[in-house]
Amino acid sequence: MSTPFAKLPAWADYGLIPVLNLLVAFAVAGLVVLLVGENPLRAAVILVDGAFGSGQNIAYTLYYATNFIFTGLAVAVAFHAGLFNIGGEGQAYIAGLGVSLVALTFDSVLPWWLTFPLAIAGAALVGALWALIPAYLQAKRGSHIVITTIMFNFIAASVMVYLLVDVLKPLGSMAPQTRDFLAGGQLPKLNFLLEALGLSVRSAPLNISFLLALLMAVFVWALIWRTKLGYEIRTYGFSPKAARYAGIFESRIIIITMMISGGLAGMMALNPIMGDQHHMSLDFVAGAGFVGIAVALMGRSHPVGIVPAAILFGMLYQGGAELAFEMPNISRDMIVIIQGLVILFAGALEHMFRPAVQAALASVSPRSMGVPAAKGEGA
Amino acid sequence: MDALVQLLDATIRVSVPLLLACLAGLYSERAGVFDIGLEGKMLAGAFAGASAAAVSGSAWIGLLAAVGIAVFLALVHGFASITHRGNQIVSGVAINFIAAGSTIILGQAWFRQGGRTPPLAGDSRFNAIELPGAAALRDVPVIGTIYSELLSGHSILVYVAFLMVPFTWWVLFRTRFGLRLRAVGENPAAVDTAGISVTWLRYRAVICTGILTGLAGAYLSVAQNAGFVKDMTAGKGYIALAALIFAKWKPVPAMFACLLFGFLDAASIRFQGMPWPVIGKVPVQFINALPFILTIVLLAGFIGKAIPPRAGGVPYVKER
């Protein structure tokens, strides 16, 4: 597929344009804040302070960021194959089953460090299987993966409501959730890391799955840029025709990529279930699967971009909660708007500033654009 | 008989937003612009409609506001995906989030009722219309019941929605605009070669989408319910999308698909917890998931094949 836009130097492509897009997204979010009658600058100060003002707040920010690293990586891996996995929400939700079944079975028998690997496997497996069906249908039947993964989100929600209300709920309990896990199903907190840096943390849910998330970021980088499979995934994403011509087996790539993506989304379930709540409750994903889309777009599908983007959204979540105390007009739903604006400006409108930036660069130094000024727009 | 009529009556009421949103998607997707943002436009329309109706006291001003905001969001989608050739799905997802967040934030800031708008009554709401002769025919067996109970006594938007079906068919298949709209969804290069602007044609298609999603939103908050409740579309935009695929992007089948999904919805509420013959008790969640499951089975090609417009989802790049 020929790209309709001329090439820019790398620093503009990976630095300037994403920053411009983000600035516009936040400027529009500021307008919404104005519209509800608050001062956007004061809101920003409260938000940043709420996210990073104390050790406690930083721990919360990183706890939320953990979720978004997993789901952001999940969306990014699929993006590399040219697939849009909107189903991260459902894959993470249903993967909660894998986590809880492992935890409920072994929490009285094994210590946490033996339950944890089993739960990781359970989460990844269930998430991957939930992504397998849309992947198979795309690969073999040509059903559009966007539509099928959306449908699977709704089906996952129905399945989980049924299971939590009618099957997994302990007898005599009213709340639709599993029983609380014993010590073997609880992940250790990471607050000592922040305390080692001289920060004080009272009690925050930051736990060892944060480290797992960082490990997965390294794994995704190695997979996509350092393995044969990763090369095939990128080739297929760049041009399915070229991939086919090069002898890359199309359906294999679609299915494997989607299963990796589903597995990564599934691991998100570990963080809230085993790391924080110690039981599985209704709607524990709480939109993290969708935030992953914004995170992947903002991070340009590269782990080096995804981790900071996830921390930024963690900041918005944690700071947003603090903001809601200070400015009652602004609830945490503000994040949903910002998320939408980031997806709009960093995703759908990512090329908006490209012609302008290109023209500006060309007028400053024509040679940096690689085309003689007289010829104008190349390609 | 009475129970059946009531069930069908409920089916009509819950099918209308699906039908309007589904026809909305039809215009856009037939022109080659995929639209996942039906949900968001409907939600924003519902909010704007209920807010304007509450403030002005007129349902018609509410309707105007609903259509206005939905068209605005449709133009944002067009700006991103037609003018800037962005990813249509990404743009649709963005619009859904922007609508979901801002309706809650603005609703709380303006009305302070936990995301609700003030309740509507009287002229600020679309009320039921009695069809002519409904009272006279009431006692005629079968036909009278169907006419006076089932067909009469809905709000004007219900009749508009069902009239939109033949109208859409006529526009798409009997007018020059419709022919070109379908052509631009199949082969934009050919349309361009004929000297017709692909961009302007696609913009007109997304404006149609905006108008219809606005109507759907206004129906939800100003006709079916008396006010806006947060997240009141509750996935209806996606069910409409499923119905659109189920109907293979055709107006009349779209109506039947929406009626089918609406019937499932109405029946799941009515028969909640009741045992079924042979299969026993069916969990209500299964019925709720049924539209999505059916669509996937269809997409998998097990009940006929759903083939989308060929140029759908692909931004048009004019060769220079």
UniProtKB/TrEMBL annotation, chain A:
<keyword id="KW-0813">Transport</keyword>
<feature type="transmembrane region" description="Helical">
    <location>
        <begin position="306"/>
        <end position="324"/>
    </location>
</feature>
<dbReference type="GO" id="GO:0005886">
    <property type="term" value="C:plasma membrane"/>
</dbReference>
<feature type="transmembrane region" description="Helical">
    <location>
        <begin position="144"/>
        <end position="165"/>
    </location>
</feature>
<dbReference type="GO" id="GO:0022857">
    <property type="term" value="F:transmembrane transporter activity"/>
</dbReference>
<keyword id="KW-0762">Sugar transport</keyword>
<protein>
    <submittedName>
        <fullName>Simple sugar transport system permease protein</fullName>
    </submittedName>
</protein>
<feature type="transmembrane region" description="Helical">
    <location>
        <begin position="253"/>
        <end position="274"/>
    </location>
</feature>
<dbReference type="InterPro" id="IPR001851">
    <property type="entry name" value="ABC_transp_permease"/>
</dbReference>
<feature type="transmembrane region" description="Helical">
    <location>
        <begin position="68"/>
        <end position="86"/>
    </location>
</feature>
<keyword id="KW-0812">Transmembrane</keyword>
<feature type="transmembrane region" description="Helical">
    <location>
        <begin position="330"/>
        <end position="349"/>
    </location>
</feature>
<feature type="transmembrane region" description="Helical">
    <location>
        <begin position="280"/>
        <end position="299"/>
    </location>
</feature>
<feature type="transmembrane region" description="Helical">
    <location>
        <begin position="204"/>
        <end position="224"/>
    </location>
</feature>
<keyword id="KW-0472">Membrane</keyword>
<keyword id="KW-1133">Transmembrane helix</keyword>
<feature type="transmembrane region" description="Helical">
    <location>
        <begin position="15"/>
        <end position="36"/>
    </location>
</feature>
<keyword id="KW-1003">Cell membrane</keyword>
<feature type="transmembrane region" description="Helical">
    <location>
        <begin position="119"/>
        <end position="137"/>
    </location>
</feature>
<dbReference type="Pfam" id="PF02653">
    <property type="entry name" value="BPD_transp_2"/>
</dbReference>
From TrEMBL, chain B:
<keyword id="KW-0762">Sugar transport</keyword>
<protein>
    <submittedName>
        <fullName>Simple sugar transport system permease protein</fullName>
    </submittedName>
</protein>
<keyword id="KW-0812">Transmembrane</keyword>
<keyword id="KW-0472">Membrane</keyword>
<feature type="transmembrane region" description="Helical">
    <location>
        <begin position="238"/>
        <end position="264"/>
    </location>
</feature>
<keyword id="KW-1133">Transmembrane helix</keyword>
<feature type="transmembrane region" description="Helical">
    <location>
        <begin position="89"/>
        <end position="111"/>
    </location>
</feature>
<keyword id="KW-0813">Transport</keyword>
<feature type="transmembrane region" description="Helical">
    <location>
        <begin position="7"/>
        <end position="27"/>
    </location>
</feature>
<dbReference type="GO" id="GO:0005886">
    <property type="term" value="C:plasma membrane"/>
</dbReference>
<feature type="transmembrane region" description="Helical">
    <location>
        <begin position="47"/>
        <end position="77"/>
    </location>
</feature>
<dbReference type="InterPro" id="IPR001851">
    <property type="entry name" value="ABC_transp_permease"/>
</dbReference>
<dbReference type="Pfam" id="PF02653">
    <property type="entry name" value="BPD_transp_2"/>
</dbReference>
<feature type="transmembrane region" description="Helical">
    <location>
        <begin position="284"/>
        <end position="303"/>
    </location>
</feature>
<feature type="transmembrane region" description="Helical">
    <location>
        <begin position="156"/>
        <end position="173"/>
    </location>
</feature>
<keyword id="KW-1003">Cell membrane</keyword>
<dbReference type="GO" id="GO:0022857">
    <property type="term" value="F:transmembrane transporter activity"/>
</dbReference>
